Amino acid sequence: MSAPIEFTADGPLWASLLGALAIGLAFGAVLESAGLASARKLVGQFYLTDLTVLKTLFSAIVTALLGLFWLSWLGLLDPSRLAVPETAVWPQAVGGCIFGLGFAVAGLCPGTSCVAAASGRVDGLLVVAGVFAGVLGTGLVDAESRWFQRFYALGDRGASTLPAVLHLPSGVVVFGIVAMALAAFHVAERVERRSR
Amino acid sequence: MKVSPRDLGAAALILGALAAVAGEPAASSGTLGRGVRDLAAGVEQHAGEVSPLQLALWIRDRPAGLRVVDLRSAREFSEGHIPTATRGTLREQLDFVAAGAGDGAGSGSDDTVVVYGAESVGAEAWVLLRLAGRSRSYFLPGGMAAWEAGVLHPVLSRQRLSPDELRRMADLSRYFGGAPQIGDGPEAISAPLGQPPPAGASPAAPRRRAEC
Predict the structure, then answer these.
(1) Do B100 and A169 make contact, defined as CB atoms within 8 angstroms?
(2) For the segment A108-155, what is each residue's pLDDT rounded down to a tens digit?
(3) What is the end-to-end Cα distance of chain A in Å, rounded?
(4) What are the C-alpha distances in Å from B21 to residues A76, A77, A174?
């Protein structure tokens, strides 16, 4: 687990695994209680009739963002322990398009498909199976195709962060994202009201 | 006390506004940053090293963005250097990184930089470049001497290399004007070549984590 919390770095493995399990349970429970195990609710995002996904996930982003910033600022958390996923512009842009298409068609994303499957929904099980098949197939192609390996590395920027890319202090970026989220919530409410 | 979404939004806005003027958070004292830990792991795994024949393969195949930098003196450089290498100093490399000019000296962020110099200069330079954020950087252990021994006068192990690999390495040596020999002494090369790096990447680059 890549938590920036001291006990997970040097403590026993079972503590990290237990922490990961607890976080996973909480995450799944929250997604389920927010109704995000329902494909109908998720697809409403694309038809602009139900923007629960945007509001839920953006709320999570803002909560984590403010929590990480302030806990780091208070010295209670070491931000350098956070794993920052690497950026590769082209494969991630193309992968994002494919992901969006799959999300709209399946009505579920990888995370919510697991929640739906755990809730006993057949559509969730099928999407999970599809996700694993796609991941396995891509892995096999990656192992054999030099073209794909080159494409996978196109536009590799390493571990990029917004403050570094924008040359702005972290706090300013935090404020910008919070403001953007609040504006998005306001717009989402208006869009939903108009669609009813 | 009931908290409404509006109250939460107001709290978030206040915390966000305070963050804008609070200054940068600092890493907690007494712990090493992740960058240093990752670099230590890289040193232990020899992640930054590139063998002479591997470098020769990269140079021959000319992937986009490969730059070879010779950190030795002008006199040593003029006496002989690795093909396609340009002469530079470590300070120049670090100055460009610090100035935020892409990810290295005069180059875009997709470039792969291989440095070499006298004795351990290459390794020292690699550590500093990685600490400065130049993620796609490597060094040639042994510098020019290693190039001469490993590419221009390599001894290839007949017992531990397949015939195809043997032929491939011998051809690579001759491409650069070398004279390969076959032998099985302790100095014989027995490790097969990796793949040439795709544009802007190398076989040693870690795979990205998938998140969902």
Answers:
(1) no
(2) 888 888 888 888 889 889 999 999 999 999 888 887 788 887 888 777
(3) 43
(4) 19, 20, 11
Other Cβ atoms closer than 10 A to B36? 13
B42: chain A residues, CB-CB within 8 Å: none
- Global pTM? 0.55
Nearest by CB: A174 against B16, B29, B35: B16
Residue A86, classed as helix, strand or coil, is coil
Instruction: Tokens for A151, please give them.
Output: 């494409």
DSSP state of B97: H
Residue B33: its chain A contacts at CB < 8 A?
78, 80
**Torsion of the alpha carbons at B75, B80, B84 and B87, rounded to the nearest 10:** -20
Contact between chains at B110 and A155 (C-beta distance less than 8 A): yes
Q: Is the dihedral of CA B188, B194, B195, B199 positive or negative?
A: negative
Under the banding of pLDDT at 50, 70 and 90, the label for residue B134 is confident
Q: How far apart are CA B20 and CA A179, in angstroms?
A: 11
pLDDT over 70 at A159, yes or no: yes
Residues A99 and A105: their CA atoms lie apart, in Å, by 10
ipTM for the whole complex:
0.78
Give the β-pairing of A156-158 and A87-88.
antiparallel
Hey, what amino acid is at B137? S
Distance (Å, rounded) from C-alpha B54 to C-alpha A82? 33
Establish, for the pair of chains A and B, how many residue pairs have beta carbons separated by less than 8 Å.
117
Contact A123, A108 (CB under 8 A): yes
DSSP string over A136-163: HHHHHHHHH-HHHHHHHTTTEEES--HH
d(Cα B149, Cα B205) in Å, to the nearest integer?
A: 26
Bigger pLDDT: B175 or B23?
A: B175
Round to whole Å and give the CA distance between B203 and A115: 36
Which of B19, B31, B205 minimises the CB distance to A69?
B19
Whether residues A80 and B35 touch (CB distance < 8 A) is answered with: yes
Q: Do B23 and A73 touch (CB under 8 A)?
A: yes
Of residues B127, B146, B126, the one with CA closest to residue B138: B126
Pick the closest to residue A79 from B5, B31, B98 (CA basis).
Answer: B31
Distance from the Cα of B42 to chain A's closest Cα (Å) equals 15
Give residues with Cβ within 8 angstroms of A63, minimum separation 6. none
